[in-house]
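Letters spell out the chain; backbone shape is given numerically. Take this protein:
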Amino acid sequence: FFHHKKSTMMAIFHSRAAAFLLLLWSSAPSTTSFLLAPPLSTAPNFKASTALSAGSTDVSDLLYQEQEKIIIQRGELEETFVTDAKPLEASKIKIRGAGKAGGFGKASSNGTKASSKLEGKSYAKILKKEGVLRLDNVLSPTTADALRTYLYNLRTQSEQDVADGKVQPIERYAHVLLKHNRCDLTIPLGTEEIVTKALNESLRKSPVGGIMESIFGDGAILHEFSCLMSDVGSQRQVIHPDTPHVDGKGPVLYTCFIALQDVTMDMGPTTWLPRTHTREAHAAFKDPFTKDEIVSNTPAKLGLLPKGSCGI
């Protein structure tokens, strides 16, 4: 399932800032654990002088800059491939006895427990087929506004805490490519009422929780809870899958992007390539002779999401 995050289709640079709540689920911790290599100067059994450590840092920076240049160039090329993308529309289902399907305050909160379970199962069926699903009203407008304000304040405080040496960068920011004017801010749990409220709305009052339960069962694990922020001038990312396709394993990770403001074209909406979450699509994407073809020929969908809506 291929996509590029926060990357404009009409221009290389973002002209407006955007923030997305990010939730990742997995079936078990072992399927999605990250291995983080320690910096060279702190690796086990490695002793380096201060001069060598500084030199290693300089080399790492240079390598990263070269890597960024390649990614940016590839993103510019891919922009010429994806020429007929359409907005991702909200999926609609009908569940007998559940009323209007939707999100916050709709079927999941007004229907019975049985109808909510059927709702989650029906949406999960679409998600498994298409590889991407849009749901509206996952967060109420007031909750989305309050959460967005809190997260921008948290980002400012986190930047200061890192600068003062109170916390390590990895404690506040997840790894993201093309770091300039972009960050993936991790969100603390259990400290702010607005965070708890947002989780309650998205997981219990909207169909999102029911979808994950339908796919993974009661043992579904919330693997990551963070906020992706793209500021003015951030570069276009390349089309990429977040996870590999493993035969016989089924889906190992689902990602839910919740828009904390209306997403417009000048913000650089996420682009998805539906039905590429297959063995054949992944094999073609890995092949340098067919990679461009699959990007060019797959009808793309744009995440022009209203505030409080999500793409899974």
